[in-house]
Design a protein that fits this description.
The protein has 154 residues and is an all-alpha fold. It has a domain of 107 residues. It is built from seven helices and no strands. The longest helix has 44 residues. It starts with 13 loop residues before the first helix and ends with a helix.
Length: 154
């Protein structure tokens, strides 16, 4: 604990802090002696709040669970959508070059055309570098990343 904005310790020694905490606890017990009994009851399974509190809490927990499952499902759908978009971009680029998949596979790993496709995929989709490198037959993700970075420097 510190003294406001001066960043000096409030208590000069640990014993002072312990004495302060002990004094606060004694004062709390003097002012609210029935609190000890309340704490004991709550610890034994009593619940605080309205009669339907537990039911509402359980319903909320189930609702959050459903949303989490739906969120995971949506994430999977987004991933599938991005993969479909990536495939469409690859098909567009191949069509523009009047090329097929077989020819793409036979080209050098860092062919400028493959780097161009990879750059477009990185810019327009959320596909990973590893996925892109494998899909366009461009070697490893690391090699492709270097090629994309070098091309950006020029």
């Amino acid at each position: 604990m510190s003294r406001g904005d001066r960043l000096e310790p409030i208590f000069r020694v640990d014993e002072d802090q312990e004495l302060f905490i002990k004094t606060l606890e004694e004062r709390r017990q003097e002012e609210c002696p029935e609190e000890k009994e309340l704490v004991r009851k709550v610890r034994r399974g009593w619940k605080l709040g309205a009669d339907d509190f537990l039911e509402r809490l359980e319903a909320r927990i189930r609702s959050v669970g459903r949303k989490a499952k739906r969120g995971a499902h949506l994430a999977e759908e987004v991933k599938e959508t991005m993969a479909a978009k990536a495939e469409r971009i690859i098909a567009e680029e191949l069509k523009r070059k009047k090329m097929d998949e077989v020819t793409l596979g036979k080209m050098r790993k860092m062919d400028p055309f493959k780097v161009k496709i990879a750059r477009r995929l990185r810019g327009e989709t959320t596909m990973t570098m590893a996925w892109i490198a494998e899909r366009v037959h461009a070697g490893t993700a690391e090699t492709l990343a270097v090629a994309l970075h070098q091309k950006n420097d020029k």
